[in-house]
Design goal:
Elements (H helix, E strand, L loop, with lengths): L3 H10 L5 H52 L21 H6 L19 E3 L11 E4 L12 E2 L25
Antiparallel strand pairs: 1-2, 2-3
Length: 173
């Protein structure tokens, strides 16, 4: 027969987790969750930067086709809108040579929703080149995280690689 003493002994032997054990398990789960969240945020940030670089590649290809047709890059006043809208061109002769649209759809903002900045001539590489600048993740132009169409040409020190000895106006050697 089950006596009250026997029942109490069985209950004491089948005790659940203590409060401290539960708190330790919760702390471990929170730490693992935090590590996963931080890792996923870094992956997302890098994927946004990679997406911006792909967008610059698309614009660069369109600029090359524009340059072949019109023998120049868009002026700052025309901007990159000249890649999809001939109405922004300043010269009627250029409108006749324009064979666009050079982009399937307008690209006016970066991956973070900030307006792209277009400069011609380039402030980084000089005459004959253009700059397209994204404000980057902080959404402010002129800061360290800005991304340009020239970033792939930079070495480990952040300098444009391989252009010190190159002068587009110099005669062939």
């Amino acid at each position: 027969m089950n006596t009250p003493d026997r029942i109490n002994r069985r209950r004491r032997g089948r005790r659940g987790f203590s409060l401290i054990e539960l708190l330790i398990v919760i702390a471990i789960l929170l730490a693992i969750g935090g590590l996963v969240a931080v890792t996923m945020l870094n992956v997302r940030d890098q994927s946004d930067i990679d997406l911006q670089r792909v967008q610059f590649d698309q614009i660069d290809q369109a600029m090359t086709r524009f340059n072949v047709d019109l023998r120049r890059y868009p002026s700052e006043e025309e901007g990159i809108a000249a890649l999809w809208d001939s109405e922004v061109l300043e010269d009627e002769e250029d409108m006749n040579r324009w064979r666009g649209p050079y982009l399937d759809s307008p690209i006016t903002e970066d991956a973070w929703g900030t307006e792209l900045e277009y400069r011609y001539p380039s402030e980084e590489r000089g005459d004959g080149y253009y700059d397209i600048v994204s404000a980057g993740p902080d959404r402010e132009h002129g800061t360290e995280d800005d991304i340009t169409n020239h970033d792939r040409l930079r070495d480990e020190d952040g300098e444009l690689d391989g252009f010190d000895d190159f002068d587009p106006g110099a005669p062939d050697r």
